[in-house]
Description:
This protein has helices at residues 2-5, 14-38, 40-46, 51-54, 59-78, 82-103, 107-128, 133-156, 158-163, 169-173, 175-196, 220-241, 249-271, 274-294; strands at 131-132, 204-206. With 298 residues, the protein is mainly alpha-helical. It has a two-stranded antiparallel sheet with strand order 1-2.
Amino acid sequence: MALSVKGILGKVSPLDLFTVWIIVFLVMPLLFSINDLLHLEEDKKMKRERLFTVLDIPKRQLTIILTSLILLLILLAGLRNILTLGFLILLMIFATAYGYYKHKKRTILTYSFRTLSGFALYLVISSYFGLTVFDILLAIFVGLTDLQVHIIGDVRDILKDKVADVRTLPVIYGIRATNLIVLVLQFISTSFLLILSNITADTVINSKNLLSSVFVGIPRLAIIWVVSFYLVAWVVYLFLLQREKVPYQWLHACFHGAKVMTFVSIGISISGSTWVIVFFFIIWILSYTTYLWADNRL
């Protein structure tokens, strides 16, 4: 999404594009590993088959691996520019704080840092190619959208979270109230996106490798797609809630798919390139089907 919004996909050097994907590829398992370590006891109670509940990795080896990943990420980001490095550090802090406060059962702080993690992740990728004020505003939308799907994931995990005494919104307020909260969040984030669609000029903060300082705005068609995806997701989600013995990951999956398609719709609407559209859809199909296949461990 960040690449398409800047209109640089296919114009940036292969080395830069490869480096960005390496950063994303490395940072995600690093953050998941830290989160799993913080939730080790809860995962054992919930009988989740995660990396550290299945494999017994010596602490010395684990420390070396995680430290090496952190140093490599800092090197890749730092060689680019100070903003990318700064947002990467913030991402690691926010993601670690999210896992810590979820372990400590601090609901508001947990969701706040989850939102900030999505916000920072977008800016890590975006700032690599040059940062603008619009990027920061769009990152807010990304953070809010990620939060919505995470809350639906808590509906999926409600029975296991009760066993582990994790204080999520569904556990505290019930599924109906949680659905209402998600609906309100979606209304806010979509309205915010509508406001962003009226922005036609942008202010450059860091112009390194930025091709243009003028942004044409998000097409209204992309917003129609966003609303359509979430309407379909709600229909499927509410239908699944009424059924028994539905694989619980599908409750999360219907909104996860809508979230991904939300980002894809913005990216392909702005890029205007047919091959970019095909590329995004192929990647989405492969990643989403893999997610559904592997998600029985969550």
